[in-house]
């Protein structure tokens, strides 16, 4: 079949698994929006869990960049933001997953950075247009090696932190997620047949802000590990 392709197909997107030579093939990237109350507030909105449900945006798997990389400052923005997040890696197929069973579908966890062209995102929001230009762009999904759940256990508590050039900007707790990991998996699986290789970026706490060329970002999640990124 490959001899019938107009041009060579892109190779699969692979990310590292901690303490293993095996690689994790990335299928899709789902991101949860406004999943910490304090971050929603700094973005000028409020979230009432009793009245609202989670909402999502996506990034193309080609946006994946490994921790420790140096990336270009992206085009068409003057307000390039970091967002530190817990990433959940799905390990088996599931649809309409009960919340009580959600942990069974988790392969592991990673630290993630949801890099954002904030000015483009806000412009889209103001005009009721999709966030794609602000969120889904090259080198915008940074990820650390995935730690299998068999090694780290269930990650549902712990400190999540980010610093820029050594100065702490984000410092919160995973227990402050509005919709926790199990709730997100159960809800998302009502709309998609979740597949092995799916990644879920679960949302960022307050303290997001801009970075410029020359900056270095360092983040960590308790019991999970670190992530870093340099801006060229």
UniProtKB/TrEMBL annotation:
<dbReference type="InterPro" id="IPR036663">
    <property type="entry name" value="Fumarylacetoacetase_C_sf"/>
</dbReference>
<dbReference type="InterPro" id="IPR011234">
    <property type="entry name" value="Fumarylacetoacetase-like_C"/>
</dbReference>
<dbReference type="Pfam" id="PF01557">
    <property type="entry name" value="FAA_hydrolase"/>
</dbReference>
<dbReference type="GO" id="GO:0016853">
    <property type="term" value="F:isomerase activity"/>
</dbReference>
<feature type="domain" description="Fumarylacetoacetase-like C-terminal">
    <location>
        <begin position="29"/>
        <end position="228"/>
    </location>
</feature>
<keyword id="KW-0479">Metal-binding</keyword>
<protein>
    <submittedName>
        <fullName>5-carboxymethyl-2-hydroxymuconate isomerase</fullName>
    </submittedName>
</protein>
<keyword id="KW-0413">Isomerase</keyword>
């Amino acid at each position: 079949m490959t001899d019938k392709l107009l041009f060579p197909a892109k190779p699969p997107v692979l990310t590292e698994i901690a303490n293993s030579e095996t690689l994790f093939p990335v299928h899709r990237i789902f991101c949860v929006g406004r999943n910490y109350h304090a971050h929603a507030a700094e973005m000028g909105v409020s979230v009432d869990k009793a009245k609202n449900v989670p909402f999502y945006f996506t990034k193309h798997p080609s946006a994946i960049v490994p921790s420790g990389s140096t990336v270009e400052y992206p085009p068409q923005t003057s307000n390039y933001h970091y967002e530190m997040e817990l990433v959940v890696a799905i390990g088996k197929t599931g649809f309409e997953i009960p919340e009580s069973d959600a942990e069974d579908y988790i392969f592991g966890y990673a630290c993630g950075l949801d890099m954002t062209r904030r000015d483009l995102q806000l412009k889209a929001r103001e005009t009721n247009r999709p966030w794609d230009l602000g969120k889904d762009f090259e080198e915008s999904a940074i990820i650390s090696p995935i730690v299998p759940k068999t090694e780290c256990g269930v990650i549902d508590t712990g400190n999540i932190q980010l610093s820029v050039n050594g100065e702490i900007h984000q410092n919160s707790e995973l227990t402050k997620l509005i919709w926790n990991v199990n709730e997100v998996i159960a809800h998302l699986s009502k709309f998609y047949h979740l597949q092995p290789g799916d990644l879920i970026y679960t949302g960022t706490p307050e303290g997001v802000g801009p970075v410029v060329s020359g900056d270095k970002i360092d983040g960590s999640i308790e019991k999970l590990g670190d992530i870093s990124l340099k801006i060229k």
